TrEMBL record:
One of its GO terms (cellular component) is transferase complex. It comes from Pyronema omphalodes (strain CBS 100304) (Pyronema confluens). Keywords: Isoprene biosynthesis, Magnesium, Metal-binding, Transferase. This is Similar to Probable hexaprenyl pyrophosphate synthase, mitochondrial acc. no. Q7S565. It holds the Pfam family polyprenyl_synt. SUPFAM superfamilies: Terpenoid synthases. CDD domains: Trans_IPPS_HT.
Amino acid sequence: VTPPPGRVRPDKIVSTELNHLKSQISLLLSSGYPGLDSASKYYLQSSGKLFRPMVVFLMARATSVAPKVQGWEAACVSLESKFNNPIAPKSIIADKNPDLSLLSSRSMPANILGTAPGEAIAVLGTQRRLAEIVELIHTASLLHDDVVDHAETRRGMPSANVFSGNKLSVLAGDYMLGRASVFLARLRQPEVIELIAEVISELVKGELYQLTNTRTDYGSEGYLKKSLDYYLEKTYLKTASLISKSCRAAAVLGGATEPVANAAYVYGKHMGLAFQLIDDVLDYTGSSEELGKPATADLELGLATAPVFYAWEEFPELGPMIARKFEQPGDAARARELVYKSKGIERTRELAQSFCDTAKEAIQIFPDTEARAGLEEVLNMVLSRKK
Ligand code: FPP
Ligand code: MG
Ligand code: MG
């Protein structure tokens, strides 16, 4: 989605960082086993949106701002003289580890005093590495997801399970997780390691929640509310966990204070929830050509998402269909028809909008920079995207 003229282009703000991302990930993945290499790089070569890395880069920039506080310059001078070398505070740890020093030197300004208070500092090497790790984990989850979902297409091409077969897809996904874990550990940042390791288990939990989507207490008091809560919990695990925790990790790597790190998390969580809500709307409203994968697939897979839960409030006959995962002949078609007749899609969009409002509010504590405007524009993109 291209924003109207006059508004910032989030991908342009971090285009330098994004341009290097794919070749960098390719280097991280080379295994020397051609089958594994081609399976693991298959989705990386396709036209992925690089949405998560883009958000990590924007968050890194939005939170890496020289604080507008008195004494800032004096503090920098004292740090510099302490280490007798014109380096930024953030790259100090780099000197202890050759791997990290390579990471940090590439993007740091030579002298932090060159950065005026309130001005954005470049993205750190460690934050770039985080973006690469996040894309690796996301891609690994897609490789596994397409096996679990028996997918046939993704991004307008045969899906990896079709291209390489189930076995290589699973192994390539595992391999990517292994590589991601190695590079995560090399960041030498315990909180970031914990955050991202937890994402991996939460992705699996989200997938399991989805498989066991159907409650057995159909018709009981508060069933709709409980179903929606369960769905949002699943949505957090499946989508928002990776985005929210990588936003927080980006801020933590930049040395952010707790309120800033928390605001990054709150932004990521609500934007991630909205992202998946719109994904679930697009399953009803998008075309397969636009999406590059089959549209109206969820009902066929037995999945009830927000539009159908809201529609059910207007059309009680949806209840038993949801409970039996739309498995009787004609269920999916009838359910789709009722969703279109209902306010389900509109109400799902409204919920996504309210999450985006919360996300926007959270980052108002950041200084007013181009990167923060980029994060705000990402929210508009999430709400108006067509694929
Ligand atoms: C896409 O959902 C899938 C995910 C967001 C997560 C999938 C997670 C697993 C398979 C667990 C294993 C995790 C790892 C890290 C290897 P979707 O099927 O609704 O979307 P789609 O339409 O793009 O396929
Ligand atoms: Mg899928
Ligand atoms: Mg799936």
